[in-house]
Amino acid sequence: MQIVVQIALVLAVVTVSLALMRGGSNARHLAIRRIMLVLFACVAGLSIFFPGLLTQIARFFGIGRGTDLVLYGLIVSFLVYMATTYQRFRHMETTLTKLSRRIAIDEVNRTQSPAAVADLIARGTTSAGPELSGPVGR
């Protein structure tokens, strides 16, 4: 029975990781997170008030102690947290990069020729060289 629990935990980790890496902060992902939070709160409350029940559930699945079951749950929760944090930081990085580029383009001196501005954008440079004397490097 223990191998079944181990396989179920590995499948849970893989499934949650793939679902979170797929991305999106739409209503479906938000609903899943809220349902998981409510489920976690219920299980945590029951395990605090009835610690023997947690041990019985663990033994049913072939796990020696209830604390081991809690440890497995924490590992899965930590992996979910890592995946969501990675996704959030990746989204923030992308947003910050787009914002930085937009500010750099907007701050280029408007009196410069469009060809010089296009050349600056094509090179991916955010600071003005000798050909552009705009207020980019404040």
Question: What's the gist of this structure?
Answer:
This protein has 138 residues and is an all-alpha fold. It contains five helices and no strands.
Describe this structure in words.
- The structure is a single chain.
- The protein is mostly helical and 138 residues long.
- It has a domain at 2-92.
- Helix content is 77%, strand content 0%.
- It has five helices and no strands.
- It has helices spanning 2-22, 27-49, 51-60, 66-107, 114-123.
- The protein is elongated.
- The protein starts with a helix and ends in a 15-residue tail after the last helix.
Keywords:
138 residues; disordered C terminus; mainly alpha; single chain
Topology as a string of helices (H) and strands (E): HHHHH
**Unreliable sequence segments:** 128-138
Number of helices: 5
Number of strands: 0
General shape? elongated
Question: Structural class of the helices, strands and pairings?
Answer: mainly alpha
Oligomer: single chain
Sheet-strand content, in percent, reads: under 5%
Tell me the Rg in angstroms: 26 Å
Instruction: Give the mean pLDDT.
Output: 75
What is the strand and helix layout of this fold?
Layout: H1 2-22, H2 27-49, H3 51-60, H4 66-107, H5 114-123
Helix pairs in contact: 1-4, 2-3, 3-4
